[in-house]
Design brief:
about 500 residues; Rossmann fold; six-stranded mixed β-sheet; five-stranded parallel β-sheet; 21 helices; 15 strands; globular; binds pyridoxal-5'-phosphate
Length: about 500
Amino acid sequence: MSQVYRSTRSDKPEELSFEDVVMTGLAPDGGLYLPSEIPQLPSNFLETWKDLSFNELAFNILRLYINESEIPNEDLKNLITKSYSTFRSEEITPLQKINDQIHLLELFHGPTYAFKDVALQFVGNLFEYFLTRRNSKKLKGEERDIITVVGATSGDTGSAAIYGLRGKKDVSVFILYPTGRISPIQEEQMTTVEDSNVHTLSVNGTFDDCQDIVKSIFGDKEFNDKYHVGAVNSINWARILAQQTYYFYSFFKLQKIIGNNSKIRFVVPSGNFGDILAGYYAYKMGLPVDKLIIATNENDILDRFMKTGEYAKQQEIGVKATYSPAMDILISSNFERLLWYLIRDNITDKNDEKAGSILNDWMKQLKENGKFTAPKEVVEKARTIFDSDRVDNKETIETIKETYTQNKYILDPHTAVGVRTTTRFLKKDQEPINYISLSTAHPAKFSEVVNKALDTFENYSFEKDVLPDELKQLSTKEKRIKLIDEPSVSKVKQAIKDELKF
Ligand SMILES: *Cc1c(COP(=O)(O)O)cnc(C)c1O
């Protein structure tokens, strides 16, 4: 079957290719791209896939979403091998036992020690693959296809983008961050990369200033036409796709430990809903997951939706700065994709165009009134597979402490939000259920919070117990930073022009 893609907000038939959706990112109508038909697993996959390596599983899964005519088998295999060769663990995403019922899925063995590497290592290679192919067809003297990725980071996600795109042909990357407001390790990670296509702009302002500048650059048609500004934020379909592999991989691993008949749930520390959405695709393809549990911090729009059916932005309250900053969001951008499937399944004739039109209407309400309410049937449909909980700062710290004393394991604050949620669900269970709690970052990346939780323990030392050698060495490397002395769009644009020299 040929796989095609469409926008969540479109009310017309659309048949876009995988390459189109990856290279475009966001649809021109403001929607997100998705496959309207989710491919189904081969009927014997539980038997035939259970012993496959991470890369072999990735190939089988991705093959179902990307037509061979777009990426032939050999090329897809090479892209996968290249993407995961940068990981420190042979298993790529190993499972770590915490106790009989909780296993952590460690997603932080990539180059920047955070889960976003799993997707961004692949996305970088994919960009290069498509650009190289396009440019090889160009005639002499014809303009080359390029991408200039521009993004803002509050510290955590910029480095994953940089490490995904470093050294990629015809790709340049500019990451803006607020001067003095990100941790030293985060700054070192971003600014010590030597590749000439990587540029870090330290902007004398706030994270919001950085984001506004990026938005304004995206809106500048003339600048865009010239530099082909692209984004690698979590709405890119390729990211969701690449994240599906670890749901399968960890599911098979755990089944081998606990037996085939035990129920398995995933608990996912969530912000923009990209990580857990990959789990939803795995489930819809046929992976027999019992539940997907959304764990939010105090920015709890997803938890509120699951409980009430109201999706409300709470603009007046604003984003709360929590101990798990990578989950500090007002709305969850990828939730729109889930809503589309739920709406479509709720229409009698399962019509894609009608689903797009309804969703478009909800998104308008969200924009105009800051909220919308989903019909009961849609919320109930969501509840058949999703559940949720919310964890505050105090509980995050407590969980890091408890896991350290009880399990001799140091959690990062995002992972702690998931583990707290997991233990709460465990206490309610009437039967033994097994949990895979996703670990989304290495604790060294969030030293301040981890130290706040553990400094009172006499034997604890951040340098000795948490900080990996590789990150220690970063402080000895030379930093490359371009300072932008005020949050000015024109100064940032000028800096980009100066670097690209055309
Ligand atoms: C991005 C991120 C998350 C949240 O993932 P979403 O896909 O946005 O839900 C959680 N933890 C860490 C460390 C992250 O970087």
